[in-house]
Amino acid sequence: xxxxxxxxxxxxxxxxxxxxxxxxxxxxxxxxxxxxxxxxxxxxxxxxxxxxxxxxxxxxxxxxxxxxxxxxxxxxxxxxxxxxxxxxxxxxxxxxxxxxxxxxxxxxxxxxxxxxxxxxxxxxxxxxxxxxxxxxxxxxxxxxxxxxxxxxxxxxxxxxxxxxxxxxxxxxxxxxxxxxxxxxxxxxxxxxxxxxxxxxxxxxxxxxx
Length: 209
Fold this sequence. Notes:
- By secondary structure, the protein is α+β, with helices and mostly antiparallel strands.
- It has 1 helix and 13 strands.
- A hairpin with a 2-residue loop joins strand 8 and strand 9 (128-129).
- It is elongated, with a radius of gyration of 28 Å.
- The termini are far apart.
């Protein structure tokens, strides 16, 4: 049987070596596998970097943000180039709650004045009633709130959307929250939590507000 020539020829351009006719196909298969492995490793590294420096995935615990967010939701947050604004949903970590982060809505920022009519269930910021279609119920739970308050510099007034089942800035143990306690803004629901029947409402995927 005639011996096959497994030698390599030089590309006339001088740019690279190419296999001579009859060279084994295993080499191209190995190169393709190497390319796939390289792509997978690159994607994994990129994902880790995004997770560490750009965004975090956090699980929602408790009913304080119903029905905007529900127990078990996995939400994507980021603190990159972020400055809190009224209406944002944020994740914060305070000494009151120890190592557990909490999710609340920003009602007012520094310099703004908050007042609440607990009979009518209406929240006022700088004298104007807030339009709050996201709340689960009117704001009737007073907690420790005793009157109009002005948010100090570098702080936020936070409340849960489930107003009568939320421990937030109305409670003296939390009060105004330092902006340095903000882990990040909530951008969207990545994985919806399970409902009472154990199913997930995937129509909520990708949206918070």
